[in-house]
Amino acid sequence: MLCPRVLCARNEVKFNFIKEESINFPVRMLCRVMQVSKSTYYDWFNRPGKFISAQTLHLHRRLKKPFEKSRNSLGSREMMKKLSEEGFEIGRYKIRKLMAKLGLKVTQRIAYKITTKRKHSDAVADNLLNMNFNPVGTNQVWAGDVTYLKTGEGWMYLAIVMDLFSRPIVGWHIDKRMTTDLIYKAMVKAYNLRQPPKELVFHSDTGSQYTSKRFRKLLASYHVRASMGDVGACWDNAVVERFFGSLKHDWIFKVAQPTREFMKNDVAAYMRYYNLERLHTANGDQSPINYENSLKKCPGGLDQNTACFKHLWETPCAVPYAGCCGGRGGRYPWLPDYVFLFYFYTTLYIPRSHAF
After folding, report:
1. Architecture of 141-349 per CATH?
2. CA 20 to 30 Å from 341, out of 23, 114, 221, 349?
3. Mean pLDDT per 10-residue interval, the chain, length 356 residues
């Protein structure tokens, strides 16, 4: 059956339609119906196919692979950065044209919004962070929050812990119940992975799970200082909220989530993608792991509390750093303190972007 849109389409679409239907109807009749001349159709039909070079074909494949891997969420800006890492010298304008030609269209869905309230009988910590999302080193400021994820079997709740220096997810836990145990396990995994120093700041909202006595005791046992955002100020934890937005819009909403087990595996897949591959402007257009690995090559390097990143995405992770990342204590034991501090602040603090 002839679709009315075909009559309004460009000539190439009409010609393809005539070619497909020519086995059923005369070409003369089809040309009259499609309102094109027969000579124009035969001129198009006899025209040799357009030659595509091997280099162009390789570029098309490289465009499709990261786009599909990101679940149709990579725009032209991020695609340009990805291709630049692979050695392609190509501008954003050309990438936009190629993505349109290949049908690579970014899709997003609107998220549902549900908020939580704190228990007023619990104590609320002061806001130590005050929207300063750019610490000068690892394991200085962490941030956490909880979000809702809908499945065919019901809701799932995800708690995360993020290091605000390079923005990796250092601990997370997902469960079908939103209790203090949810954020408790996420923090335990993060602490066992990174082994942070004393006086680490952990920033969160004033939800009842974070103000509970059990969680406050856990932070005290780890010598972690609690920091909580102001009531009604959604931007007080903007970096974590941005992560949840990317998780939902760029990943979760792109496929059906029939079961809780499927959702759990899908979240784990995104944690791998986020920590290993997703580019961040705050990291100089590098993924969190690549950014910290690049700093380890500098004379100042990262501090000795940096954890081994090969376990960042694993749920049951409890791997201490044990010197496996080659911090200062492992690679530069001979470096005097004043020289180390000079390199630390000149390589980490000055070039650090203030974007989030």
Report:
1. 2-Layer Sandwich (3.30)
2. 221
3. 53 84 89 88 79 78 82 81 83 86 74 51 79 88 94 94 95 94 96 92 91 94 90 76 90 90 95 91 88 77 44 38 34 37 37 38
User: Could you identify the residue written with the tokens 């149709």?
Assistant: 72
Report pTM. Answer: 0.60
Do the beta carbons of residue 312 and residue 352 sit within 8 Å?
A: no
The pair of structure tokens assigned to 65 is 């692979």
C-beta of residue 205 within 8 angstroms of C-beta of residue 143? no
Residue 141: strand pairing partners: 201
Pairing relationship of beta strands 169-175 and 154-163 according to DSSP bridges: antiparallel
